[in-house]
Amino acid sequence: xxxxxxDIDIRFKYELANLKCSIKKxxxxxxxADFEKDDTYSLMYACEDEHAKxxxxxxxxxxxxxxxxxxxxxxxxxxxxxxAIEKMFVPAYICAISSFxxxxxKEIALEADYTKTKISVIPFLYFKLSGIIQxxxxxxxxxxxxxxxxxxxxGIIDLxxxxxxxxxxxxxxxxxxxxxxGIKIFDNNHLSFESxxxxxxxxxxxMAVLIKLCPQKLKINSVNANSHIDTIKxxxxxxxx
Length: 241
Description:
The protein is of the alpha/beta class. The protein has helices at 13-26, 49-79, 90-99, 102-110, 121-128, 130-145, 147-150, 153-165, 200-213, 228-236; strands at residues 2-9, 29-37, 40-47, 118-120, 171-178, 183-187, 190-195, 215-222. β6 (183-187) and β7 (190-195) form a beta hairpin. The radius of gyration is 21 Å and the shape is elongated.
């Protein structure tokens, strides 16, 4: 029988809560339990030795997804001087820069040894995957060293265009609608984003969603003339149809 425990900062508890559900569905464990103590969320399980390798593999991929798809964004938000970037472009920039070269991040993360009996998820990243932290810090440093360029609208738009161009497409086609008063984004007729107004905050959130969904093609429609359409067209460039 092999026992294992994963500990994570309680702010990220739902990352392990999802893992708990996945493990329970497999029905390979004798025990799956979780608890909270001193701002830490812990997940524990016990399984027969023959299932240990399969479950360690699931944990490796789950923690890799957490590091690359969740914690990288958190890290960059706390190490980049976002006050120097025009506020409307901050969410889009963070989404774009955190997804940049995520394939390499995943490769590095999956090379780590996840077979330990106890893994403290965040310290494990900093001490066992320090190469990833160094990569992220380099991104933050490059941004902060050249931050004066991003204060200008054209500078941040050029950077976003470059980052979007080098993203790996996640969806085929998105449709963006500027309605009379609000904004909608459809992914294959599925409503992925909606706002009832067109404030700068709404536009900022909309751009971040577009970058997060990363379409191969983008259709834009507007009931009325809209000053934000040109900005979207510049960022998504040849993706706009």
